Amino acid sequence: MEKGEVDGACGITWTSLKSVKGTWVRDRMIIPIAQVALEPLRDLRDVPLITDFARTEEQKQLLRLLTIPGAIGRPYIGPPDMPADRLALLRAAFNTMTADADFLADAAKMNLPIEPTRGEKMVDVLAEVSALPRATLEKMILARE
Q: Which of 104, 116, 120, 128 would staple 98 via disulfide (CB 3.0–4.6 Å)?
């Protein structure tokens, strides 16, 4: 892109772009036109979500389904029979770590924004996927083949 060989790119996470090419963001050398996300990012509130372009409920469901991997990111997963008190402890520790001033300062030095998806939100997202009509899920599977 810097050499003018292409006019656009897709599939680059905003976090990675800010970290690796922060000057592009700062100098407005790039203009995001849509977000592949469940919710707008803090610094992209004026950029529409891809679901905003859906014309039908099924299209919206399919587009939301595309956003799930980005919303989940790199999850920490425990066994299905994990005791509730241990789950609560691990979630609290994660939430405390991601709000810690030293942790956030280190991330800022690397130009890495910290916007974690909380465990409760992940449960909601996965429940949403589980509730989708089978036909919608099959369309997504076929589209990816």
A: 116
- Between the CA of residue 125 and those of 5, 11, 68, 87, 128, what are the distances in Å? 38, 21, 7, 18, 5
pLDDT in tens, 79-112: 989 999 999 999 999 999 999 999 999 998 987 8
Question: Could you tell me the CA-to-CA distances from 127 to 13, 44, 48, 69, 139 in Å, in that order?
Answer: 24, 26, 24, 14, 19
Per-residue model confidence as pLDDT tens digits over 18-56: 888 888 888 988 888 999 888 888 889 999 999 999 999
SS (H, E, C) the chain: CCCCCCCCCCCCCHHHHHHHCHHHHHCCCCCCCCECCCCCCHHHCCCCEHHHHCCCHHHHHHHHHHHHHHHHCCCCCCCCCCCHHHHHHHHHHHHHHHHCHHHHHHHHHCCCCCCCCCHHHHHHHHHHHHHCCHHHHHHHHHHHC
